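Fill in residues.
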């Protein structure tokens, strides 16, 4: 089987990639082994993520499906602070906007079905290995079908939208996959019903906003409404702390929800978990050289930092949007002889996620300064980061301030076009992720 573009993974990154490619006149093939709907974490959209959904023409469908409407994020620590969802108008002035919380089983199925309805071909099967030509360029993917048979799908471009499975990195096509800053943490999560929500009198008290409860460094909880009754809840802590408790995941989560912050406890007068308790350990990583001849890794397939402010879904869908016209240009002959035909795309993605990484590191390392910047000195610039405006007009004065606090510089002129920060806790000499300790 031959196609111009094959996509590994039918989640939001794969589905968005397909829809943006179709807008460019390219009908791709999507390979997905799971049957949707399926459970997935990552349920909150930034403001710009909602913007991507609207650009795909799905705004009315989101309203029809009654996804909870998010007005912002409220953080509870020693003090509380709120960051509203805001967009920029044509004159680049801030204006009120809303986005959504999503039950991923419903949202992901909607996205995949829409991609197929618009012209993508869906193949139910498991990508087993990339196909390479004699020079090592990616030329497709081998797929194991439901009946056990193997099918080769030849492509001009392969998009890896496999998420944290990192298909091409695991196959050795990309550069190494390294642990990131937050590799010693674990996220444990489930769902509750009938928690106490805010009254909705002001933007910062809307009942469907995201709530973050901060106890101390690298120890926090989330609250994300999924419908009128159900709320996604999770606790992130150092993995060593979790192991010291010698509790099951459910026992740990229940106790933490009551002990982590008094405001969180107040909102759960009767604690009952209504969903399986799951965990994700060692979730922070970065892949070198995630673009090359015949391939691009999208979103989590090349980098993930920290879920605290819900950037993952947005980054994946926005990178899909940026990749589509570059793929079209490549198919039309642009950069075909280059060592990395998608080098500009790679730098764009690195720079954007670096803005997030430096902001998040600023939050963890300098929380009081962070709150001051959010509330006073650089409020509008911080609203931009929280919304997801990380690819244009960046690094802003606020982000540059974080880099000075962190004693960090960013360079993008290395041979690998790799965003290694000077002075961070991330070091390239560390072993690749698959050679590190086994997951919890």
């Amino acid at each position: 089987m031959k196609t111009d573009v094959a996509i590994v993974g039918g989640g939001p990154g794969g589905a968005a990639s397909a829809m943006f490619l179709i807008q460019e006149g390219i009908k791709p093939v999507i390979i997905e082994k799971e049957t949707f709907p399926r459970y997935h974490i990552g349920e909150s959209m930034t403001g710009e993520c909602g913007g991507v959904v609207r650009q795909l023409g799905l705004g009315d469908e989101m309203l029809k499906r009654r996804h909870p409407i998010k007005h912002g994020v409220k953080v509870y620590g020693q003090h509380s602070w709120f960051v509203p969802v805001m967009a920029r108008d044509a004159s680049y002035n801030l204006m009120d906007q809303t986005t959504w919380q999503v039950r991923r089983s419903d949202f992901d199925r909607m996205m995949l079905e829409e991609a197929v309805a618009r012209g993508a071909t869906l193949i139910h099967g498991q990508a087993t290995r990339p196909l390479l030509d004699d020079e090592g360029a990616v030329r497709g993917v081998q797929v194991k079908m439901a009946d056990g048979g193997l099918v080769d799908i030849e492509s001009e471009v392969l998009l890896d939208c496999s998420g944290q499975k990192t298909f091409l990195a695991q196959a050795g096509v990309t550069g190494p996959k390294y642990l990131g800053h937050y590799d010693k943490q674990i996220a444990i999560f489930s769902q509750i019903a009938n928690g106490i929500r805010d009254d909705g009198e002001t933007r910062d008290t809307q009942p469907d906003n995201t709530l973050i409860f901060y106890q101390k460094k690298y120890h926090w909880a989330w609250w994300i409404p999924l419908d009128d009754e159900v709320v996604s809840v999770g606790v992130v802590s150092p993995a060593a702390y979790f192991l010291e408790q010698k509790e099951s995941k459910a026992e740990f989560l229940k106790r933490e929800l009551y002990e982590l912050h008094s405001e969180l406890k107040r909102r759960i007068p009767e604690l009952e978990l209504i969903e399986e308790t799951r965990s994700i350990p060692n979730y922070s990583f970065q892949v070198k050289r995630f673009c090359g001849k015949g391939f691009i890794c999208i979103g989590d397939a090349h980098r993930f930092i920290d879920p605290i402010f819900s950037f993952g879904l947005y980054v994946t869908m926005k990178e899909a949007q940026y990749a589509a016209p570059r793929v079209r240009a490549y198919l039309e002959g642009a950069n075909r002889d280059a060592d990395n035909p998608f080098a500009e795309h790679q730098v764009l993605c690195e720079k954007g996620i670096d803005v997030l990484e430096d902001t998040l590191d600023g939050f963890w390392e300098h929380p009081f300064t962070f709150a001051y910047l959010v509330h006073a000195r650089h409020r509008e610039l911080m609203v931009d980061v929280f919304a997801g405006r990380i690819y244009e007009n960046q690094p802003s004065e606020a982000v540059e301030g974080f880099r000075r606090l962190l004693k960090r510089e960013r360079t993008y002129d290395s041979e690998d076009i790799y965003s290694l920060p000077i002075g961070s806790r991330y070091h390239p000499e560390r072993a690749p992720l698959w050679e590190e300790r086994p997951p919890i």
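The CA atoms of residues 183 and 282 lie 4 Å apart.
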